[in-house]
Amino acid sequence: MTRLTWALFFVLIPAVSQAARPLVTDDARLTNAHACQLETWTRQYEGGQEFWALPACNFGENFEVTLGGGRYEDRADNYHTEDWVAQFKTLFKPLESNGWGWGLAVGRVMHPDIQPGPNQLGNTYFYIPVSWSMLQDDVVIHLNLGMLRDRQQSQNKATLGVGSEFQMGQRLRGIAEIFGDHTQAPFYQLGVRYSIIPNLFQVDGTIGQQVNGQSQDQWLSIGLRWTP
Description:
CATH superfamily: monomeric porin ompg
Distance between the termini: 37 Å
Strand content: over 45%
Number of domains: 1
Structural class: mainly beta
CATH class: Mainly Beta
CATH topology: Porin
Helix content: under 10%
CATH architecture: Beta Barrel
Strand order of the largest sheet: 1-2-3-4-5-6-7-8-9-10-11-12
Radius of gyration: 17 Å
Shape: globular
């Protein structure tokens, strides 16, 4: 991928901020009240790799703050970029079993290596996460609608994500989703999430690619999620 392509891809990373790994599309849930969680993962590409760590804390009953970042390393051209994310999220209707919920997330993602000068202030974004639970949470559907202000291109971008998670076993859930913005072809990924210790520690993995993209731009992601 070129540096410009990476800039466009990382613009979509805010949706990662509080989606339940390995989903990029966010859900209408929060970290437990007065508690914190940590999500960390790596994505491997043919020509490089990226690493992310996103801790999040719910300081009250309904106000979650995420502060974290990632690093991409290009093996072929021997360069790296870093990205930083700050996000605030609240719910207007928490998701309940066999019900639905929705909320609002607002944040900023900064690409200091890709966006020099005043653009280092980053791209501001917001989105509305909506979730539906069915069959006693065996199937959950998520929808994100939002907008991002691309400072470097002086352009507003409409963002969309549709994701699903479904029970495959006692501790195993599958995920499938598609996400992107209106200026380029969307991305998709498929994967699984396995609970090593239910409600506390999970591992996950996905494969993904841009729709109509090149095979060398496929990724494999492996992640960990700790939710005390």
